[in-house]
Amino acid sequence: MAVEYLGLSEINGPLVVLEGVQNAAYDEIVEMTVAGSTKKIGRIIEIYGDKAIIQVFEGTDGMALRNTHTRLTGHPMEIAVSAEMLGRTFNGIGEPIDGLGDIISDVRLDINGQPLNPVSREYPRNYIRTGISAIDGLTTLIRGQKLPIFSGNGLPHDQLAAQIVQQASLGEGSDETFAIVFGAMGVKHDVADFFRRTFEESGVSEHVAMFINLANDPVVERLITPKIALTLAEYLAYEKGMHILVILTDMTSYAEALREVSSSKGEIPSRKGFPGYLYSDLASLYERAGIVAGRHGSVTQIPILTMPNDDITHPIPDLTGYITEGQIVLERQLNSQSIYPPISVLPSLSRLMKDGIGEGYTRADHQDVANQLFSCYAKVGDARALASVIGEDELSPTDKKYLEFGREFESRFIGQSHYENRSVTETLDIGWELLRMLPREELDRIDTKILDQFYEKR
């Protein structure tokens, strides 16, 4: 029989303290009734003897020491999951906010997920096409990969996320089922409306499940949103055999919520005031991507984070980079030139790219073209630096060609419209058009046979 506890011992921000508790467990969900009417949900985050510290998801507004009744549920937070959640919109703790009613399902899963034996993981293969040349051509997203986007305040990462949701697919000719789970944390109302409207108008909302935590929602909800999104993704991938792309924005809001709750608990801060366990906490989310042996589906992640002051050494991007398999970096200078998406090619990489492209996946020349474009664009930087010292007129003919190549590369290859959905073949063909601007002897990263096949081709 469930025991109900009357009153609280202490209220501190989003945390409350309950004394005299028996048989409580870490991470256990509690149900709280405030003033006999308002229902709230909390989670036990620390236990000292008979004292339990509870995190209240909806915040502690209206709660007092004497007007709250607390009941322990005996289980961690769970969510009912179903394939019918695709096409629906939920708040940060998984409650429907689209007016279409509750989700009815016999399957309830722990939002913290199940520990995954590393031996049971399969190596990520094959690719997910985004329709964006700078990603598909140079930092290809592989199924089962976690590939973050490092952005900055004011850069168009929201538009980029929306475009990826609209255009992402398993590539030409695939008959496998593909869907997207979209989790937004700490977003403003206008940004949430932008995502909803964009997905509906483009007709992709039917295969997208949205979880939205608004900026004015309680900060504790922000810590639950990505876990709920990933729980649904794992169910759809491993139980329903679907290939799921999870987009989480903005992980900086998540980390700052973690810092705020940690400060309320009185924990000793680490770098920039973040808790010392920020690395392991982020890893508990990112490592839920992958492919499991014996299961048909896959979970692929694109976490998006805004770097404070564009500092890539800040703890959030720094630790994210350690855990994930590469990064896509947005650049403010390209954005100021009205180049969209403003992806900075040189610091961006996909460590698993080589295993999901080439013959049998995209096209045989893909890896060589990517290597050569990287190499040539790096030389563009050298030519620009030299031109800033001696002037463009004094450059050698080859250096002038590199300057011309750089301008065309940024405007034609990196740059594309918000609604332009390029195939991998189109991306590679644009790459060859740009490489033909340079003398053949400069293309030293491409196999001779591939060069003979594509360089003279018009």
From TrEMBL:
<dbReference type="InterPro" id="IPR004100">
    <property type="entry name" value="ATPase_F1/V1/A1_a/bsu_N"/>
</dbReference>
<protein>
    <recommendedName>
        <fullName>V-type ATP synthase beta chain</fullName>
    </recommendedName>
</protein>
<dbReference type="Pfam" id="PF22919">
    <property type="entry name" value="ATP-synt_VA_C"/>
</dbReference>
<keyword id="KW-0066">ATP synthesis</keyword>
<dbReference type="InterPro" id="IPR000194">
    <property type="entry name" value="ATPase_F1/V1/A1_a/bsu_nucl-bd"/>
</dbReference>
<dbReference type="Pfam" id="PF00006">
    <property type="entry name" value="ATP-synt_ab"/>
</dbReference>
<dbReference type="InterPro" id="IPR022879">
    <property type="entry name" value="V-ATPase_su_B/beta"/>
</dbReference>
<feature type="domain" description="ATP synthase A/B type C-terminal">
    <location>
        <begin position="355"/>
        <end position="455"/>
    </location>
</feature>
<feature type="domain" description="ATPase F1/V1/A1 complex alpha/beta subunit nucleotide-binding">
    <location>
        <begin position="131"/>
        <end position="350"/>
    </location>
</feature>
<keyword id="KW-0813">Transport</keyword>
<dbReference type="Pfam" id="PF02874">
    <property type="entry name" value="ATP-synt_ab_N"/>
</dbReference>
<dbReference type="InterPro" id="IPR055190">
    <property type="entry name" value="ATP-synt_VA_C"/>
</dbReference>
<feature type="domain" description="ATPase F1/V1/A1 complex alpha/beta subunit N-terminal">
    <location>
        <begin position="9"/>
        <end position="63"/>
    </location>
</feature>
<keyword id="KW-0406">Ion transport</keyword>
<comment type="similarity">
    <text>Belongs to the ATPase alpha/beta chains family.</text>
</comment>
<dbReference type="InterPro" id="IPR027417">
    <property type="entry name" value="P-loop_NTPase"/>
</dbReference>
<keyword id="KW-0375">Hydrogen ion transport</keyword>
<comment type="function">
    <text>Produces ATP from ADP in the presence of a proton gradient across the membrane. The V-type beta chain is a regulatory subunit.</text>
</comment>
